[in-house]
Amino acid sequence: MREFWVSVEEALPEELKKDISQKAHANSSTVAVCSGKDVNLVRGAGLKAASVAEGDILIFEETDLERMASLRGEGRPVCVKATVQKREDEERALRAVEAGADFLLVACPDWKVIPMENLIAKVRGKAKLLAEVSSAAEARVALETLELGVDGILLKTQSISEVEETARVLTSFAPKEEKDRITLVPARVVGLKQLSLGHRVCVDTCDILEPSEGILVGCQSSGLFLVQAEVSENPHIEPRPFRVNAGPVSLYTLTPGNKTRYLSEMRAGEEVLVVNRDGWPRSVVVARAKIERRPLILVEAEVEGVRLKTVAQNAETIRFMTREGSKPVTELEEGSEVLVHHQLGGRHFGVLVSEESVLER
């Protein structure tokens, strides 16, 4: 889990200090950077305290490395603060790591990405690199910089909603656990019907998708079919591994946070959930939604006595994921097996309501 630190400044009203501490604790195991007099306040909210003179973590300026070395033997972790505006500042910050700092907390007031890339490359594995940010958006950039990202962030804000949103961003970078896995089961094809023209959506992403990956789509929110990315070789067109030819504009698709959206809502900058054959999901950014009129085909499959449906473009490049690989929609027949995500309940503006009874034909 990436480190989540929040700044609890001494000059803030007492109630705001408490609110920031409580909201941070409600979302994550957090460290609060505070003055010595506020150590008990943040500890009372369940947070660790990082402070200059007291606290669970000792904080030092980059000019105070000798004192840091003398106190490091006390057994408490130490953090060195550094401001980086030019290359020489990066070198001074690295000296703090060489002196034995456990954490390097960096503020980049001007250029934010390039100096952080340099530090990630040089500090990784030697100390935990923390980036000072003022918003959830800045936190996301720091956590994605150089693909590896920083080890954590220090959020400086007086906005409670920014604390909550930043905590959600941190959670999205947590290692995936078994509970995050999406259940996929084989469904038996029981019906196929050629349809006339309709508007279908190619979801073009900002990622290269693997052969085992695709997007979950379906006519019913309770039954989504795993459609493979266009990764397969064929004699007529080059693979497009960034693309999933997902189906008509009205189909549901699964997005981050276990929410469904219509394919018609996909557009540049949105996020969609890519899922592999084993059910492991990842969020990817949409670069474009390419909508064209094409001949369609209805696919009906059955799982646990429930009939599920989806509609796809009737073409050889559209492939449905199976347990062993994938199969073109043009080669499906009654008795074929495809992978689906079957989830009981209904959806209210995309949010699952498991107790709701919904009939979708």
Description:
The chain is an alpha/beta fold. It folds into 2 domains: 3-175, Alpha-Beta Barrel (TIM Barrel); 180-353, Beta Complex (Endonuclease - Pi-scei, Chain A, domain 1). Helix content is 20%, strand content 40%. Helix 1 runs parallel beside helix 7 (160-172) and helix 4 (87-98) packs parallel to helix 5.
Please specify the SSE layout and strand pairing.
Blueprint: E1 3-8, H1 14-27, E2 31-34, H2 39-44, E3 48-51, E4 57-61, H3 65-71, E5 78-83, H4 87-98, E6 103-107, H5 113-123, E7 128-133, H6 136-144, E8 152-155, H7 160-172, E9 185-205, E10 213-220, E11 223-228, E12 243-248, E13 252-255, E14 259-262, E15 271-276, E16 281-303, E17 306-313, E18 319-321, E19 326-328, E20 337-342, E21 346-348, E22 351-353
Parallel strand pairs: 1-2, 1-8, 2-3, 3-4, 4-5, 5-6, 6-7, 7-8
Antiparallel strand pairs: 9-12, 9-16, 9-20, 10-11, 10-13, 10-15, 11-20, 13-14, 15-16, 16-17, 18-19, 21-22
Task: Offer a concise description of the structure.
The protein is of the alpha/beta class and 361 residues long.
Mean pLDDT: 90
Shape: elongated
CATH architectural type of the largest domain: Beta Complex
Q: Helices and strands: which structural class? A: alpha/beta
Q: What's the CATH class label of the largest domain? A: Mainly Beta
Individual helix count: 7
Query: What is the number of independent domains?
Result: 2
The name of the CATH topology of the largest domain is: Endonuclease - Pi-scei, Chain A, domain 1
